[in-house]
Design goal:
The complex is a heterodimer of chains A (74) and B (150). Chain A is built from two helices and five strands; from the N terminus they run E-H-E-H-E-E-E. With 74 residues, chain A is an alpha+beta fold. Chain B is 30% helix and 36% strand. Classes of the chains: A alpha+beta (74), B alpha+beta (150).
């Protein structure tokens, strides 16, 4: 699945998106940690289909996934 | 020019918000004779000191689709909370905004001041808390830090 990255997370990853496989947000977090060094030290939320979700959320692979660092609008 | 239809509107503008755009927005409401009060919030990039280095600019990016969905929800909620509000306009910059330039414009109009005032204060807070907008503060020594709303 395509995972969109933003802000400091994209900077650390050196990419604005990654291709990963996961069946839950929990598993996705593990896959992300393998690919982005230091991710564990960065505050971030996972959005599924443009809604921030909990870690036990299941994924079927068709969703729009995004990794969101703290917001800074305004 | 009814604003009470809650379709998805693009709030994002590339680069700083021109003060002339603010004046023009205000001017456009002169034909709405039911309006008695306008309330405007204008956010300006501040040259904060970050460990001895001044913020020279902020590079704004956003998760556009999610931000516009959240903004549509916020707009609907605002019109439900302040039903007398005549219209609500929101603009936020993307790209590089130098210190001293405008990056955020929220503008509400209503027959009386209380609704417009309360709505703008509430909408500004909601946008800062809920919209996935990211800010990279560019410092005077060309390093950067990532802005984070408190």
């Amino acid at each position: 699945m395509r995972v969109l990255l933003f802000g400091i997370i994209a900077e650390k990853a050196g990419a604005s998106e990654l291709e990963l496989e996961a069946t839950s947000v929990n598993e996705l977090r593990d896959r992300l940690a393998e690919r982005i060094t230091g991710l564990g030290d960065l505050v971030h939320a996972i959005a599924v289909d443009r809604q921030v979700v909990r870690d036990d959320r299941k994924l079927n692979g068709s969703e729009e996934i995004a990794v969101l660092p703290p917001f800074a609008g305004g | 020019m009814s604003e009470k239809k809650h379709k998805v509107r693009d709030i994002f503008v590339e680069g700083p918000i021109d003060p002339q755009f603010v004046a023009t927005s205000l001017e456009k409401h002169a034909t709405r004779l039911d309006i008695g009060a306008h309330e405007l919030f204008l956010g300006q990039v501040r040259a904060d000191d970050k460990s001895g280095q001044a913020v020279e600019a902020i590079d704004y990016t956003a998760y556009r689709d999610m931000a516009l969905e959240r903004m549509t929800d916020i707009r609907e909620e605002a019109f439900a909370k302040w039903p007398s509000m005549t219209c609500l306009h929101v603009h936020h910059s993307l790209g590089r905004i130098p210190a001293g330039q405008l990056c955020f414009f929220v503008f509400a109009s209503a027959p009386h001041r209380q609704a417009a005032r309360e709505a703008v204060a509430w909408v500004v807070d909601r946008i800062k808390a809920d919209l996935p907008i990211f800010g990279r503060e560019v410092l005077s020594d060309s390093t950067h830090v990532w802005k984070r709303n408190s």
